[in-house]
Amino acid sequence: MLTLFSIGAYAQTQQGQSSLGFSLGYNFNDIGNATIGLDYRYCVTDAFRLTPSLTYLVKDDGLSAWAIDMNAHYVFKLSEMFGFYPLAGLSLSFWKADLGHHTSANETRFGANIGLGGEVYATDRVSVGVEAKYNIIKDLDAAALAVRVGYNF
């Protein structure tokens, strides 16, 4: 089925191209939070792109967060249908912990991201991918895994 989707697909990493994506994933912190995210990708060159994103860590056991990331990808196109990329970037996260009895604690943390991703160019406008990264944040380090669907323009 993937082969049928890929007929006529193009590697969507050409200079000047953009992509808007939606992701679902999981953050492997001490609590374990599902994630929902939006991102924008802009190809500065055919191989290098910038990716600002906004991710919500869904409240679980009283802990939730918003994360704003700015990552850079260096894309290796293995074919016209598939590419993979290492990533590195910065993160600003806003954490909220409900402590019970109408009490909460808030923390804002600056951090860094490193990771890898891969994507299949399903059509000339749609890509599907997976991304694994490690968030380096004081007292809140965690691995994260997400699946992304993007619309390319």
Largest sheet: 8 strands, antiparallel, barrel
What string, H for helix and E for strand, traces the elements in order?
HEEEEEEEEE
**Class inferred from helices and paired strands:** mainly beta
- Which regions are unreliable across 5 or more consecutive residues at pLDDT < 50? 1-9
User: Total number of β-strand segments?
Assistant: 9
Helix fraction, binned, reads under 10%
What does this structure look like?
The chain is mainly beta and 153 residues long. 3% of the residues lie in helices and 71% in strands. It has one helix spanning 2-6; strands at residues 18-27, 33-43, 48-60, 63-74, 76-77, 82-100, 103-121, 126-137, 142-152. Strands 1-2-3-4-6-7-8-9 form an 8-stranded antiparallel β-barrel. β7 (103-121) and β8 form a beta hairpin. The longest helix has 5 residues, at 2-6. Mean pLDDT is 91; it is low at 1-9.
Helices, strands, pairings?
Blueprint: H1 2-6, E1 18-27, E2 33-43, E3 48-60, E4 63-74, E5 76-77, E6 82-100, E7 103-121, E8 126-137, E9 142-152
Antiparallel strand pairs: 1-2, 1-9, 2-3, 3-4, 4-6, 5-6, 6-7, 7-8, 8-9
